[in-house]
Amino acid sequence: MSLELLGHVDLPENLKPGGFDHAAIHCASGRLYVAHTANDALDVIDCVHDRYLHSIPNLTGVAGALVSDERNLVFTSNRGENTVGIFSPDNDEVVSAKVGVGIRPNGLAYDPGKDLLLAANVGDPDISDSFTLSIVKVKERRMTASVRVPGRTRWTVFDAQAECFYVNIAAPAQILVLASDAPDRIARTLTIPAPGPHGLDFDPEHRRLFCACDARQLVILKADSGEVLKQLELSGSPDVIFFNKALRHLYVAIADPGVVEVFDIDLMERTETIQTERGAHTLGFDAGRNKVYAFLPETHRAIVYTDKS
């Protein structure tokens, strides 16, 4: 087995129904930021000692967390107030700015070279044309473009080599590509052969995308051409995924039945399934220490593993 249990980190009790969502690591400080959606807050974990530090409040419906080590910034997507939050990990008890974006922002990706943040907005099916992408010029603290998309968005990632964003669309099943030098329009579309693209990550060395779909499929495809290389069966509908570039592992969180599945991406096969807790649909990954954090909504804590491969 590759994932070895290290322990648990107790987090604040849920103040209302719900649990956790996306998480991201600030490598320089070893701090993990996880969206505690039930508490409208971002919980901060010390990954060196695996202990809870504090929470950042007043982020209504927070769903996404993203860190830029290059620019020393932390971003949040706040679904309940249609904003993105921006702050520095050097002063991570205060959100320095909020910027209005589209309806119910979720996925986040950032181009540090052009200082552009993309917020993928879930939208509202009762509001026409509300499935959008918002482009935010971070230094200027303003939204500079809104791009209509054909369906509900999911997660998004940035490709530094190609200078483009990839955005999952649940239906029609596809990945949209936006060039960061022309982010106000869709450059091309990659068709996904399984319903419900959800979790998304990227292998920059081999230029492959990993797209985890609601239809219990992991689709591996070439980022440049869209050619599907492999489809692998999952044990349930996935949510958050993370790619470990050093060990060539992909971690997939599945809420029902409550597991983390580990895939060897070079062999393109599943190597391990680890039981977590029913409803645990999100992960954090500390690449510097090869640690995986699974967030448990019922017991409001994180379970910590180290990848020993």
What share of residues is helical? under 10%
Structural class: mainly beta
End-to-end Cα distance: 8 Å
- Assembly context of the chains: single chain
Instruction: Return residue spans where pLDDT drops below 50 for at least 5 consecutive residues.
Output: none
Please give the radius of gyration in angstroms: 18 Å
Element pattern in H and E: EEEEEEEEEEEEEEEEEEEEEEEEEEEE
- In order across it, which strands form the biggest sheet? 1-28-27-26
Number of strands: 28
Which strand-content bin applies to the residues? over 45%
Note the overall shape. Answer: globular
Number of helices: 0
Largest sheet: 4 strands, antiparallel
Q: Give the overall average pLDDT.
A: 96
Quick overview:
The protein has no helices and 28 strands.
Task: Write structural notes for this entry.
With 309 residues, the chain is an all-beta fold. The protein is 0% helix and 55% strand. The protein contains no helices and 28 strands. Strands 1-28-27-26 form a four-stranded antiparallel beta sheet, with no helix packed on it. The chain has a four-stranded antiparallel beta sheet with strand order 2-3-4-5, with no helix packed on it. The protein is globular, with a radius of gyration of 18 Å. The chain starts with a strand and ends with a strand. The mean pLDDT is 96.
